[in-house]
Design goal:
The complex is a heterodimer of chains A (361) and B (372).
Chain A: E1 4-9, E2 30-31, E3 35-36, H1 38-47, E4 52-57, H2 62-68, E5 82-87, H3 102-107, H4 109-113, E6 119-123, E7 127-129, H5 133-143, E8 147-153, E9 163-167, E10 170-175, E11 183-192, H6 193-202, H7 211-216, E12 224-228, E13 233-235, H8 239-248, H9 252-258, E14 275-277, E15 282-288, E16 293-294, E17 297-303, E18 308-309, E19 314-316, E20 319-320, E21 325-326, E22 331-333, E23 335-337, E24 342-343, E25 348-350, E26 357-359
Parallel strand pairs in A: 1-4, 1-6, 4-5, 8-12, 14-16, 15-17, 16-18, 17-19, 17-20, 18-21, 19-22, 20-23, 21-24, 22-25, 23-26
Antiparallel strand pairs in A: 2-3, 6-11, 7-13, 8-11, 9-10
Chain B: E1 2-3, E2 24-25, E3 29-30, H1 32-41, E4 46-50, H2 56-62, E5 76-80, H3 95-100, H4 103-109, E6 113-118, E7 121-123, H5 127-137, E8 141-147, E9 157-161, E10 167-172, E11 181-190, H6 191-203, H7 211-221, E12 226-230, E13 235-237, H8 241-249, E14 277-279, E15 284-290, E16 295-296, E17 299-305, E18 310-311, E19 316-318, E20 321-322, E21 327-328, E22 333-335, E23 337-339, E24 344-345, E25 350-352, E26 361-363, E27 368-369
Parallel strand pairs in B: 1-4, 1-6, 4-5, 8-12, 14-16, 15-17, 16-18, 17-19, 17-20, 18-21, 19-22, 20-23, 21-24, 22-25, 23-26, 24-27
Antiparallel strand pairs in B: 2-3, 6-11, 7-13, 8-11, 9-10, 9-11
The chains are: A alpha/beta (361), B alpha/beta (372).
Chain lengths: 361, 372
């Protein structure tokens, strides 16, 4: 029998200027050409044979529901179990702290109660990584912890990431920001299913709090441990991180870490043809998706599906989402272009390395 | 009923391990995708797929037919390989024999019309239009035909028609054709007539159980109403390695005759999930189709790279078709060639020749060219 079910909370927003998610919930933000943020947590679950996943939705859930469908791509169209789209509370997208609001979890107790697995893997949709959850659940089981929080070394200062203070792997304190090199919480934890249900009942009075804010005062009593993840991971909590994470994918080493053959990152598939390169095009250091047609210049950029770069057009150091046309002679540099836009012939859209230009729909 | 059992012997190493309909084509497709997509785009929800030669990969590729919207209640993709009966066991012998042996399947479907297709042709056709013509004319059998150049007519089954496109004569590979309307091997039968004709044909001791050779001439002789349905447009049967190579590379260029990007009639496929492809800092790509999962560090010109192909630094790929998972190591050259699935050309090795008189260089699946 399966050991764990999955629970992904997509009902939150970050402290950052919301412009960077281009009006979408973070979970359905397009990233790395053909993916959406939620694909990473969901694929990691699918790849370790979790076949029962609940996704707590924000009120503007259209793009998430559209992307997930019946969960077929992630083998979640099951007779028993499968994908459950769960209602999130209206507070979700209004608050700016924490990704695990107690009320959201409490409101969906039924999902937890109906399962018989011993564990729940709970995640947000803000991190990009390819991790064996099998090993993670093994470690949780072996340690005897009540809660296992997955951590990574912070690669910069973050005002929106929870820091973890631990002694010999036992969590003794939690912080609301982290500095470079600190142990940061990856918004991913394993918890006993029944233990989680008990915990939620105990916190019913403070359901407006984040689970880890509430747990902070009880760390002496509960066995909360860390699981240090040393593989590649990237947080996407603001515009700078979004841009940097896309660009990091241009490193073949990162590609190999994120997309190993035995653990694919799964996403909704479309019937788009292979990318077409015209005569005289110039492409270097770029991720190019299916359905793209390139006649101009593309360098150091990530292109989503069905992007057209016409003759004489150029795309430099930019992220172009799906369905965008860069018309003849148009120039795009240091920019993010939202989906289905047409950048008119001859137009120039430029940001700087430090101030990326965002063209929203 | 989709005939997908052929060996495709003249495709040499390309069909050593897999049936011709399952051969990779056009970067992310397999040949059978084109016909199955025609079915999907014609709102056909039940397809029997008759398989025989090396069927495993074909079966697993088609699966439930989900990729072509065939996983539908009351419909579906039914895989129909030859099977044993009380009378014994044997292989499908001839196109009509394959259908004959699945009469039970046809009876079970209880359909009014049966469309018979080949799984190894490349074209776009809305079969609903053909069926409409069949019904409007009140035909017993409709054969899809296309005009071919007169000098090529002796290679085809040629239909002679009256001025209302009724077929008056059928000649298989005539030395002196009196028409240039070639049969495309696409038929719509009234189901009752088909079942009757197949049973009658089986009784004939001299039969070869072939639609073109036996069934159609007999129906004509019986005075049945046979309609020619004219098709104009792109249609290819990639019979040989040279025609496979040529047809694949025809997809390139600014205005290819067959447009993969026509979005109101998509070509659907059962694809693996791979990341977008990566083009390295020193790469140079000119006139190419490149699929997901590829990594390109060298030079690619006038070529097709299928899913997960790797082209190393300073490697060159010209006028070539690389099937899924092929690897061209650093500094290797692949010219005027086809690399099978998972094939490798080792570093610095040259495979193929720019000399247009040379044949297409071809290696089969998982073959390594050059020293290990």
């Amino acid at each position: 029998m399966a050991r764990a079910i999955g629970l992904i909370n997509a009902n939150y927003f970050t402290k950052a200027d919301p412009a960077f998610t281009l009006g979408r919930p973070l979970a359905s933000l397009p990233v790395l050409g053909r993916y959406r943020m939620i694909d990473f947590a969901l694929s990691n679950m699918a790849n370790c044979c979790i076949r029962n996943v609940g996704v707590i939705l924000p009120t503007n859930y259209r793009s998430i529901a559209d992307h997930l469908g019946a969960g077929k791509e992630w083998s979640l169209d099951r007779k028993n179990g499968g994908l459950f789209l769960l209602p999130g509370s209206a507070f979700g997208t209004a608050r700016r702290t924490g990704r695990f609001l107690i009320k959201d979890l409490l409101d969906n107790k039924a999902f937890l109660e109906r399962s018989r697995t011993p564990y729940v893997v709970v995640s947000s949709a803000s991190f990009i990584y390819n991790m064996s959850y099998t090993e993670l659940v093994d470690a949780h089981e072996a340690s005897g912890a009540d809660v296992t929080m997955v951590t990574a070394k912070a690669s910069a200062d973050y005002d929106d990431m929870c820091g973890v203070v631990a002694e010999d792997g036992r969590v003794t304190g939690l912080t609301s920001t982290v500095k470079l090199g600190d142990t940061a919480f990856m918004d991913l934890f394993v918890i006993g299913r029944e233990f989680l249900l008990e915990l939620l009942e105990n916190y019913r009075e403070v359901e407006h709090l984040d689970l880890f804010v509430a747990l902070h005062d009880d760390l002496k009593d509960e066995n909360v441990r860390t699981y240090e993840y040393n593989g590649y991971s990237a947080a996407v909590l603001n515009g700078e991180q979004y841009f940097a994470t896309n660009m990091a994918l241009l490193d073949p080493n990162v590609q190999d870490k994120l997309f190993p053959a035995d653990r694919p990152i799964i996403t909704k598939t479309h019937d788009t043809p292979p990318a077409k390169y015209g005569s005289g095009c110039h492409v270097a250091n770029a991720m190019v998706s299916s359905g793209d047609r390139i006649h101009g210049t593309v360098s150091t950029s990530v292109l989503g599906r069905n992007v057209i770069v016409e003759e004489g057009a150029s795309v430099v150091n930019s992220i172009i989402l799906q369905g965008v046309t860069i018309a003849k002679g148009a120039k795009v540099e240091n920019a993010i272009i939202d989906r289905n836009l047409t950048i008119a012939a001859g137009t120039e859209l430029r940001g700087t390395q430090d101030d990326i230009f965002i063209q929203q729909r | 009923m989709l005939l997908a059992g052929g060996q495709g012997k003249r495709l040499m190493a390309l069909t050593a391990n897999i049936a011709k309909p399952a051969v990779s084509f056009g970067g992310k497709y397999r040949i059978i995708d084109f016909v199955l997509s025609n079915c999907a785009n014609s709102a056909i929800n039940t397809v029997g797929i008759l398989t025989q030669y090396r069927p495993y990969l074909l079966h697993s590729y088609v699966g439930t037919g989900e990729a072509w919207n065939l996983d539908e209640r009351g419909g579906g993709a039914a895989i129909l390989p030859p099977y044993q009966t009380r009378e014994g066991a044997s292989w499908y012998e001839g196109t009509a024999d394959a259908i004959y042996r699945n009469i039970e399947f046809l009876e079970e479907q209880d359909a009014e019309y049966v469309l018979i297709l080949s799984g190894d042709q490349l074209y776009r056709m809305d079969y609903a239009d053909m069926l409409r013509a069949h019904k409007e004319a009140g035909a017993d059998l409709t054969v899809s035909v296309m005009e071919v150049p007169w000098e090529e007519a002796p290679r085809f089954g040629i239909m002679t028609t009256d001025d209302e496109d009724n077929i008056t004569e059928f000649n298989e590979k005539p030395a002196e054709p009196n028409s240039n309307l070639a049969s495309m091997g696409i038929y719509i039968f009234n189901n009752d007539l088909l079942l009757k004709a197949l049973r009658a044909e089986k009784e004939d001791p001299n039969t070869t159980m072939d639609f073109g050779g036996d069934i159609i001439p007999k129906l004509l002789a019986q005075g049945k109403k046979l309609l020619a349905y004219r098709f104009a447009g792109y249609w290819r049967d990639v019979g040989t390695v040279a025609s496979y190579h040529e047809t694949a590379l025809e997809l390139l260029g600014d205005n290819p005759e067959f447009d993969l990007y026509q979005d109101d009639f998509p070509i659907m496929s059962n694809t693996s999930v791979q990341p977008p492809h990566y083009v390295g800092p020193n790469a140079s790509i000119d006139d190419a189709l490149i699929s997901n999962g590829c990594k390109v560090f060298g030079k690619v010109k006038h070529s097709i790279l299928s899913d997960g192909v790797y082209v190393g630094e300073s490697a060159t790929v010209v006028d070539s078709v690389l099937l899924p998972g092929a690897t061209v190591e650093d500094g290797a050259q692949v010219i005027h060639a086809i690399l099978g699935e998972g094939a490798t050309v080792k570093a610095g090795v040259t495979f193929g020749s720019a000399d247009p008189n040379e044949e297409i260089a071809l290696v089969g699946d998982d073959v390594v060219v050059g020293k290990e």
